[in-house]
Design brief:
By secondary structure, the chain is mostly loops. It has one domain. It contains no helices and two strands. A two-stranded antiparallel ribbon has the order 1-2. The relative contact order is 0.09.
């Protein structure tokens, strides 16, 4: 297999070769990224009930407090 190397940059999600390179359509290419480390992504998961039937214990209760209509904030 013959291998050629070209340098380029990623611009708006597209790889742009820095040299004036014309590759034929459907050419298979391989991208090697030097000096790049994948950033670790933190995942925050929603809590889950062991017993879903306990969900009714967590129903939100609301209390309405009425005050004078001319109350200032």
């Amino acid at each position: 297999m013959k291998v050629l190397a070209y340098e380029g940059i990623v611009d708006n999600g597209l790889i742009r070769l820095e040299e004036n390179v014309q590759l034929p359509e459907k050419t298979r290419v391989y991208v090697i990224v030097p000096d790049w480390e994948a950033k670790r992504v933190a995942h925050v998961y929603s809590p889950r009930l062991v017993h879903p039937e306990q969900a009714k214990d967590f129903v939100k209760e609301m209390m309405v407090i009425e005050g004078p209509s001319d109350a200032s904030i």
